[in-house]
Every structure is written in structure tokens, then in C-alpha cells.
Design brief:
single chain, 2 helices, about 250 residues, mainly beta
Length: about 250
């Protein structure tokens, strides 16, 4: 195969190349996306819609394949509830596969200044998406001053279930940027692209949150549910292990 020949390239290779093109020039946070970016992002979503577990040589797992049933929670440290298969990474994006055991969750977390595309490979996930609600000027919030640094108002944008037949789930710096991902009815896996990758040294660390109970509000001007989120440390029941990626090699 010639270096520029995409006709023989694996689907995962074509996805990686499109991600590289798409995220080479991402719009700055708050800026309107260019026509070129939107077109390339559409091509990337289209390719991600096509990918299946077989394209990555993933064998769907069952709960009995060494997978703890939902009732056996929290998980012991010898068996991480979530594992990650690294496929590739550049300065522009990272690509890999997350695998969740039965009953596992990736807790509510953010993606500072990042874009993302997620596609389920097998099983089913429930994804709840949130965004920061900018407080109108001049309004006060009835919370103790000592808690204001840790508490923020967010909007619950959506909660939906996704399978391998679903289209990709997409996030951006200003839309659906926080999410929680839960395995539903057994083990599940999804392919994940983040652009740019997490990098604490460049202001892109991962922060975890919890929804304060009993605080959801809807009013006449707000059709989506408004909630208070509190930033927390990484939950002790969640940690992520690693395992080898079995699929086609990606060259960039």
C-alpha cells in the first residue's frame, strides 16, 4: 500500500487520520467553529458511526467472563472496574477504548477546553451530560460563602442510552462537557477520541464532581434541569487499569 493510499487502510486507521485533520486547527474556546472544522468533524462522526467491535478485534465480554455482577460493589483493588486500551496519541488528540465491567461507572467528570467523540463497541451505556450554567449578573445564590469555591450551578443537558447501533456521542468545550458513563445490563466498551488529550501541565486535568441531592430545579425560563455540582476527589470505588489493544496498528 502506498503511503497516501487510503483504500486499503483499516477503518481505525482512517478514523485516526480524520481525527488528525479535524483537530489540527480546533476553534478557540468561545469562538465560532469554521466551516472547514465543521465539515471535517462531520466526516469524523460519519466514520465513527461505522466502526464496530470487529474492526478493533474486540471480543464482546459477558458478565460471567470474570466480570463481577452489579451487586458486588465496591470492587476490590485486584480487578479494576474500568480498563483502557491505548490506540494512539498525538499533540492534537488521543484515541483508545474504555471497557467497563458489569455495574461499573466512569464518575461525573469534565474535559476542560476539549472536544470528544465516543462510540459504543458492544453492550449498552447510559450517559448523563452536564454544562456549566453561567449565573446572570447581579443575582446572588443562597449558599454559605465557605462553600462557594467548591459548588457550581450546572444544567443537566441530557440522559440517554447508547449501544453499538447508536451514533456517536459528541462533546465540545461548551456543550455536554461534563458526563457520567454507566454500564447498563452487563459489560460494555466504547471507543473514545479526545482532542486535545488531557494534560495537567497545560490546564487540562480531569476533575470529578457529584450532584448534590434534592437540588434539581426547573423554572419558566429554564426548560432543562438546573443542579448544583460539587467538585470532589477521584471516587475511591473508581480506578482505571490498562490492557493491550488487539486491533490494527495505527500509523500517523
Amino acid at each position: 500500500m502506498m503511503p497516501g493510499d487510503s483504500s486499503m487502510a483499516s477503518l481505525v486507521q482512517r478514523i485516526a487520520r480524520q481525527a488528525l485533520v479535524t483537530f489540527r486547527n480546533t476553534p478557540a474556546v468561545g469562538d465560532e467553529a469554521s466551516k472547514s472544522f465543521l465539515e471535517n468533524h462531520g466526516k469524523l462522526r460519519s466514520l465513527m458511526s461505522e466502526v464496530r467491535a470487529a474492526d478493533l478485534k474486540l471480543v464482546p465480554r459477558r458478565a460471567e467472563d470474570g466480570d463481577a455482577p452489579p451487586a458486588q460493589h465496591p470492587y476490590h483493588r485486584g480487578a479494576p472496574p474500568v480498563t483502557y486500551m491505548h490506540i494512539c496519541e498525538t499533540d492534537q488528540f488521543s484515541m483508545g477504548v474504555f471497557l467497563l465491567k458489569s455495574g461499573a461507572s466512569i464518575p461525573l467528570h469534565d474535559h476542560p477546553g476539549m472536544h470528544g467523540v465516543l462510540k459504543v463497541m458492544y453492550g449498552k451505556v447510559r450517559i448523563s451530560c452536564f454544562d456549566r450554567l453561567e449565573r446572570p449578573g447581579g443575582g446572588g445564590d443562597a449558599l454559605p460563602r465557605a462553600e462557594m469555591g467548591a459548588l457550581r450551578r450546572y444544567v443537566l443537558r441530557s440522559t440517554g442510552e447508547y449501544t453499538e447501533e447508536s451514533g456517536p456521542c459528541v462533546l465540545s468545550p461548551d456543550r455536554d462537557n461534563l458526563h457520567q458513563i454507566d454500564a447498563v445490563d452487563g459489560p460494555t466498551a466504547f471507543m473514545d477520541i479526545l482532542a486535545p488529550p488531557y494534560d495537567p501541565d497545560d490546564g487540562r486535568d480531569c476533575h470529578y464532581y457529584k450532584v448534590l441531592p434534592g437540588n434539581g430545579v426547573k423554572d419558566s425560563e429554564q426548560t432543562e434541569e438546573v443542579v448544583w455540582l460539587m467538585e470532589i476527589s477521584q471516587p475511591p470505588e473508581f480506578w482505571c487499569g490498562g490492557e493491550p489493544y488487539p486491533g490494527p496498528e495505527v500509523c500517523l
